[in-house]
Amino acid sequence: MSYFKYEFLNRAKAYLKKYGDPLIPVKLLFWSLKFYLKRKTSRYLFIDKLNVCFLLWGGIGDKIISMQWIMTFIKEIKVKNKNISCILLIDNINQNSFINFDPSLFDAVKPRRFFEKYKFDVVLNTDNFISVIECDYSKLYKYLPDYVDKFKVAEKFTKDYIKFNEAQYFGQLMNLCVLKGWNRYDLLGACSLCCFNRDSLIVKKLEPAFITDTLCKFGLVSCKFITIHSGIGKISEYRTNAHLTRTIPDIMCSQICASVKQMFPHYCIVQLGDLSSNIIPEADICLIGKTSLQETEALLFASCAHIDNDSGLIHMRHILGKRNLVLWGPTDYRYVGYDCDINLHSKDCSPCMWFLNDWEVCCSKYSKPVCMNSIPIADVLSGLSELLCAESKAVGGA
């Protein structure tokens, strides 16, 4: 699929959501002409090299997972040929220094909107699975002849999964993975462009001095603490007071914190999150909206355990080589989660991710979602005890 067709379908979907009026064909025509004119005047960033472009977008968790594949792939192809330029186009350039923890791999990093200004020989979209958006096979054969067949296999694998209907697309994708026993890492590797699966973890190393400075800033240097988070960040489509189905309910958060204080009185409870999260009164320290991504990362690394729902923070902690205690609602832990984590899920009706277009706020079976509330607090405490015990042994053996 060409990048034009890919972006045209995305643009049409966005216009239908936003406008829903008879002028949509005119808007699409105007956008198409603008796109064509920009591409006609575009140029290569690097001459006499194979220009490989990676499109990176989505939430923090999506970017973290995709970047793991991107780094693995770049390391592999640059061993084959040094005359390859790797360009990263990211939807939020401010997140680059956090997401991209090996900048030496990239020859250029630009905002994603810069795509129309440049020509690329290969364009790979890295959202959920690897999509070959554009590929100049003559240039690919010149610089990476061993990868020509691999790219053809990847194109064949992905072409049936780019769907106009978002719910159908994600539903099919998740079901395929669960049936095959794949998680998101396995799905990225299934395109066969490089060897990559759930065991392909490039661990991110943090500067000890920065960790110490962060702990000092928030008064946690000599404190053993547990972090907790309930939220998924800002979702523009669902800016509503309705409870988001994959977040831990407020009452349950309070119950968990109160029970943790009783069972583990020597640990401080620190709440993390952005301003979209609700405050948990029972937490000892509330850092909602008070930490940068880098500081959040340092606190996740230093914490003795982390309690969360399906959110980007579990992926942040995972690439630091740490385990999570995760409560799962409608999303499927077999696809989104990690085997090394303690995964608690409802035995009632979940997972039901993408059964409905608005599954983020509506339960597909009941008037109110029950999946999270059906997870016993005793199971949470048991899982937390296991994490704390493992962390204590790891620290003692270090």
What is the gist of this entry?
The chain is an alpha/beta fold and 398 residues long. The chain has helices at residues 3-18, 24-40, 60-80, 96-99, 137-143, 148-158, 166-180, 184-189, 208-217, 250-263, 293-302, 312-318, 333-336, 377-397; strands spanning 43-44, 50-56, 84-90, 108-111, 118-119, 122-125, 131-135, 225-228, 268-271, 285-286, 305-308, 325-328, 342-345.
Describe this protein's structure.
The chain is α/β, with parallel strands linked by helices. The protein has two domains: 42-189; 213-397, Glycogen Phosphorylase B (Rossmann fold, 3-Layer(aba) Sandwich). It has helices at residues 3-18, 24-40, 60-80, 96-99, 137-143, 148-158, 166-180, 184-189, 208-217, 250-263, 293-302, 312-318, 333-336, 377-397; strands spanning 43-44, 50-56, 84-90, 108-111, 118-119, 122-125, 131-135, 225-228, 268-271, 285-286, 305-308, 325-328, 342-345. A six-stranded parallel β-sheet has the order 10-9-8-11-12-13, with helices on both faces. Helix 12 (312-318) links the parallel strand 11 (305-308) and strand 12 (325-328). Helix 1 packs antiparallel against helix 2, helix 3 packs across helix 12 and helix 9 (208-217) packs across helix 11. The longest helix is centred in the first third of the chain and has 21 residues, at 60-80. It starts with a helix and ends with a helix. Mean pLDDT is 86; it is low at 235-241.
